[in-house]
From TrEMBL, chain A:
It comes from the Bacteria. This is ABC transporter permease subunit. One of its GO terms (cellular component) is plasma membrane. Keywords: Cell membrane, Membrane, Transmembrane, Transmembrane helix, Transport. It is a multi-pass membrane protein. It comes from Herbidospora solisilvae.
Amino acid sequence: MRRLAKWVVAVPMAILALATIYPIIFTANVAMKTRREYVLDRFSLTESLHWDNVAAAWNSVGMARYFANSLFVVAASVFLLLLLGSMAGFALSRLPFRGSKALFIGCLAALFIPFQVIMVPLSRVMADTGLIDTYPGLILAYVAQFLPFTVFLMTSYYRSVPKEIVDAARIDGNTVYGVYRRIMVPIGRPALLSVGILDALFCWNDVLIALLMMPSADHRTLMVGVTSLRGQYTDNVPTFAAGVLIAAVPVLLVYLFLQRQIADGVTAGSTKG
Amino acid sequence: MPTRNTSPMVRPGASGRAVEGGDKRERARHGAARRRGRSERFAPYVLIAPAVLIIVALRLYPLVLGVNFSFTGDGEANGTAVGFANYLELLDDPLFQTALANVGLLVLLLPVAVAIPGLLATFIYLKVPGHRFFRSVYFFPAVLSPVIVGAIFNLMLAFDGPLNEFLGAVGLGPVDWLGDPGVAKFAVVGVQIWATFGMALVVFLAGFATLDSSLLDAARVDGASLRQSIWHVIIPSLSQTIQFVFVTTMIGMLTSMFGLLYVMTSGGPEGSTYLPEYYIWIQQGQMNRPALASAASTVLFLIMLVVGLLQISVLRRAGRED
């Protein structure tokens, strides 16, 4: 492309970029307004940063509680996903054993079962085992949902680790478990980071699984909490916007600092699959 | 990525130490490793067992259980075999018909949802001024929860919201984005595309990273226009990436719009924005019809299988003709 043509293309792309961030900026701006300001003119820039809305959303409807619930569930789920995913990935990629190929294919197949297809029987299973409406139940549901993806990415990452490293560590007197702990976990750190962030985003952003597994109000995760905000603040838009902002800020922070790792995780499947 | 030169660095030292037989302690260690090796034959199974157990118990078993469910009755007929009754009821239900019609609409809109990020990725790859900034901005909505996206667009698309205000300023009448049955489904799909095109964009850019740039240079030297370059160089070279984006975008549209529907329209107005996943949720959670919901789940699964296989075969054939 010629230089001029590039500038011509850049104009609509800039407009699109504006259209992409404007809804987010609009919401943040509304969240900082007083109710009166909002009713008079919702588009003007807020006169002052009105943090009362954020405080109101945080305190009054239990957003603080939901935030803590989400944090706990996501942390536990991601820890388990990375532990089980890297163990399985190590076995599937670097330990020859009977049935390894079949298990890998089974794992790939499980990747293509959407949650919507199994949600009815899964909630039945969870109810039968007494796990419904409990934290372990929700955590297990998340682990089951994102484990195939995690195993798949860890396996393909560990395939790029030279076999000789594993052999050498074995000859050095390490047990298989020792190799896992001392070699595979440290060497897999970049992949664990990428996959872990993605898993965390998936769990943090989910609403369907949480709605299904955690019916009672004080077990709500943050995203379910946001959906309940809507009904409570129909006439108080700034507080509603503040609640949305609270839920979005952690993701925004993760994005600002770890954008590359997120992109790496998203694209890992596309080039290898 | 582990670099290739790590292996020669590790290998000579480690194997050398094991072969030097003089040191008793080394030999003992070697022997111990071998003995342990025998008792560790099951180690791979131990390592993989938790993952396999969870996947089998909480994904594969429910899949079978669900198909089974779909042939049994609800309510009083709970547990008894009813044959295809649930499936017949589904086909008769106007809400499910709308849901299927909307799936058809999504399939029709799919090329648009793939072409937009593809074109944008091409421009970013060609280093349009500000390309790094564009990339970061475009990707951001893709990491937001559908719930947050839906909540934001509830504000944006409100009848007295910013979008209608903007349209009013340029002389166009207000549109009832989420209240008009003919408009709402397009509004929701539009928001879905807004929220996910960054994901496809990043995948396309990863594909471009593997593109042989000398091909593009050669095309330019030969005087090819941008359109010709895209058609004859970029699309054939990226056929695998394009195929991947098609399939993942379709899966995304069929399985990740629940949050948007739940927050923005609740399936309305007049049931016009129903999708199979929302239908399943309503039948299971609100109507207490788990068997009927299971039948809908099975239909959704079949749709996804068919669409996925069709796309792969169509795209493969298109790739071969080029």
